């Protein structure tokens, strides 16, 4: 097998394969191909048909010495269009960036800084320096309040920490103070609500104590008056938590309207504990019948029939 293929390979295919591996321009290189092809066919003893094909190709080269036909010319144009050194403009693509945390710029008109009509004097400069020094001191104080507030939060001193952090945020607010306050403030608010609740309960207890003392002072004269009266006086000892008392209390009230000449006196043993102790009250309801300063009868329990019978008996 020779340099250009076997003897059975068509001569035009040999020439075509030779052209694809050779850069050429002008008729000189075409004749060089022709000489190489003649030499190759001479070595391989070409037959008459292949020699005819070679002659046809040589004539074609003579008529077109540039070696460029329509198809080659079109391919060259396509190659030139892909050349990176061409004059076509480069279209630049957009850069994909993460702008989720980007803040839109303030494109409004700039704010006025000072009054240009005022003359700058040494007194003004000293005042400005003094204001600046105060601002720097405030920032330093803010750092101190912030550090102490964070330390108190770590120790669980929620109210003190909230107070310090609020002062720091007013002097020089930053995001870290805001994050700590989100944890500190709920606990401080719970403590404050708890304190207000029990302060209210203590005040209510104190008011009840005062009211009981007033009623106690009021009951004692009434009991003394009931003891001294010549009319029949009925002292009814009761309690708010007593079930039978709630049953018999409406009966006692209706009897008071039925016997207007009888003195009806109602005493709560919880409100007048001293009176209950003085009368040795061991159970409620208890009814004591007093006439001319002496105990003439007594009913213990919610026996409304017995109560009404005794009232009718002693009131006559």
TrEMBL record:
- Pfam families named among the record's database cross-references: Thioredoxin
Name the SUPFAM superfamilies on file.
Answer: Thioredoxin-like
The UniProt entry, under CDD domains, shows: TRX_family (cd02947)
Superkingdom per UniProt: Eukaryota
List all Basic and acidic residues biased stretches.
62-85
- What keywords would UniProt list here? Coiled coil, Repeat, TPR repeat
Coiled coil ranges: 188-218
Q: Where is this region: Disordered?
A: 62-90, 97-116
Domain Thioredoxin: where? 201-316
Protein name according to UniProt: Thioredoxin domain-containing protein
